[in-house]
Amino acid sequence: MLMPNFFLQQHQKIWRVIFWISAALAVLFFALGLGDVFLYSPADYQQGDLVKIMYIHVPCAWMSLIIYSIMGGFSVCFLIWRNQLFDIIARKAAIIGFGFCLVTLITGSMWGKPIWGTWWVWDARLTSMLILACLYLSYITLCLSLERSSVPSDVPAVLAIVGLINIPIIKWSVNLWTTLHQPASIFRIDGPKVHSTMLLPLMIMFCGCLCYSVALLIMRVETERMQKKILRLQHNFIKN
Q1: Helix, strand, or coil (residue 4)
Q2: How many CB atoms lie within 10 A of CB 199?
Q3: Cα separation of 157 and 143, whole Å?
């Protein structure tokens, strides 16, 4: 099966424009979001100012799920169309997603200690997020180990696809099992249960994380493509 040519052609100027727009928006959103968090967002009536950990914890958790889904999606595309660009995007997205997942676990522990009285519990949501971090780390480690070998990229791609089963488990873990973690309060059928004074800065911070991820991914993918191009030119030069 062949991909249409316009999907395979690389338009460096367009990617450069998207990169700078995403980077500028990330700075803008983070500035607006953090300003709102520290100047206007109210303290929770039970948790006090501890609730402000939410503005880092929740967007990072969302990004962890989104990036792994993207990673799995591009792995599927790579196995179908065998285009190396899809594999590069999946690999370069993995380290970004792992960073968000790590921040999620750390901030969650910081939030849980004063509220639950412990840094960690083997709660369904926490455990499934830990599994996601292990999936990220396993994928990254496997990619690094295969980088200079002749083993095809199918192996990490298959791992990424299999790991997708954990995404709905994380999402619905608070509904399927009794957990200490609070149930969904934003993406609900009956609407968000978070007041607008907290929801607005939360969504602004999420937009900042999203734009930051897009800019970082473009930079990492373009760097990888340039490195491969240089290696090919060096190989052809030595061969000739």
Answers
A1: coil
A2: 15
A3: 9
Q: Provide the whole-model pTM.
A: 0.91
Angle in degrees, CA 19, 147, 232, rounded to 5:
70
* Distance, CA of 66 to CA of 169 (rounded, Å): 14
Cβ atoms of 80 and 1 closer than 8 Å:
yes
pLDDT digits (tens, 9 = 90+) for 49-103: 999 999 999 999 999 999 999 999 999 999 999 998 899 999 999 999 999 999 9
Question: Hey, is 9 helix, strand or coil?
Answer: coil
What are the backbone angles phi and psi of residue 224, rounded to the nearest 5°? -65, -45
**CA proximity to 136, closest of 87, 169, 170, 102:** 102
Q: For residue 164, with 0-12 CB atoms within 10 Å meaning exposed, 13-18 middle and 19 or more buried, which class applies?
A: middle
Longest dimension (CA), the chain: 73
16-53 in b/e form (b: 16+ CB < 10 A) is: eeebeebbebbeebbebbbebbeeebeeeeeeeeebbb
Q: What is the pLDDT of residues 206-238, one digit of tens each?
A: 999 999 999 999 999 989 888 877 877 777 777
For residue 239, report the phi and psi dihedrals to the nearest 5 degrees. Answer: -65, -35
CB atoms within 10 A of CB 8: 11
Quote the CA–CA distance of 75 and 81 in Å, as a whole number: 10
